[in-house]
Amino acid sequence: MIKNKIPIAVLLILGLASSCVLVFLGCAKKDIVNLDSRGKNIICFGDSISFGYGVNQGEDYPNALAKLVEYPVINAGLDGDTSCDGLKRIGPQVIDKEPFLVIVEFGGNDFLKKVPKEDTLKNISLMVDKIHAAGAMAAIADISAGMFFREYRVALRKLASEKGAIFIPSILNGIITTPQLKSDFLHPNADGYILVAKRVYRVIYPYLKQNSNLNKGRK
């Protein structure tokens, strides 16, 4: 009897493992919209966090990211921008720049200016739609850290999932509570922006690899 039980147990384990694999693959099949993007540039589109407020020119996170990827990286951040401001300039500063992947980072100024969260999410959603219509991948970067901005993190994660965009969580986590990584109460210093770039890279890297494999198969 014992001999019969062992294969059954093994089969049950294998069946469970297979189910997990299928679930994983099912999720993976949703994929990211425009995973096969053939654009030329990674564009960091956002407010002062993308712009690089508080550091010298060249010490911002897009410049740090450029050292980690094989694509040209364009800094399209603008200090003080709200999501509404970003939506107004996305055409000439993003869509017209042959985007391959656009990293969208907005919300901080909306919060400070008491823009309703629903309006912020709507604006970011429209940005993602425009990016996808241009044939590029979109990534939504979340500036939450711990409980700070948590409600935005939850909402942006959901939005990214619904839109088929990459979600980059908590890029400022541990930075805004560490004086050695900040230039003021909120903005990173040069070391902090390097950390932000590494966090962004860690999330987007698998999609860069998948894109490379897809496009190789097209040749």
Summarize the structure.
α4 packs parallel to α6 and α6 packs parallel to α7.
Number of strands: 5
CATH level-3 fold name of the largest domain: Rossmann fold
Largest sheet: 5 strands, parallel
CATH-assigned homologous superfamily of the largest domain = SGNH hydrolase
CATH top-level class of the largest domain: Alpha Beta
Radius of gyration: 20 Å
General form: globular
- Helix segment count? 8
The name of the CATH architecture of the largest domain is: 3-Layer(aba) Sandwich
Helix-strand topology string: HEHHEHEHHEHEH
Mean pLDDT: 88
Q: What proportion strand?
A: 5-15%
Give an overview of the whole structure.
By secondary structure, this protein is α/β, with parallel strands linked by helices. Helix content is 53%, strand content 12%. It has helices at residues 2-30, 48-51, 61-66, 83-93, 108-112, 117-133, 150-163, 190-218; strands at 41-46, 73-77, 99-105, 137-141, 166-168. It has a five-stranded parallel β-sheet with strand order 2-1-3-4-5, sandwiched between helices. The model is unreliable at 1-29 (pLDDT under 50).
Could you list some keywords that capture this structure?
alpha/beta; 2 domains; 53% helix; Rossmann fold; 219 residues; 5-stranded parallel sheet; 12% strand
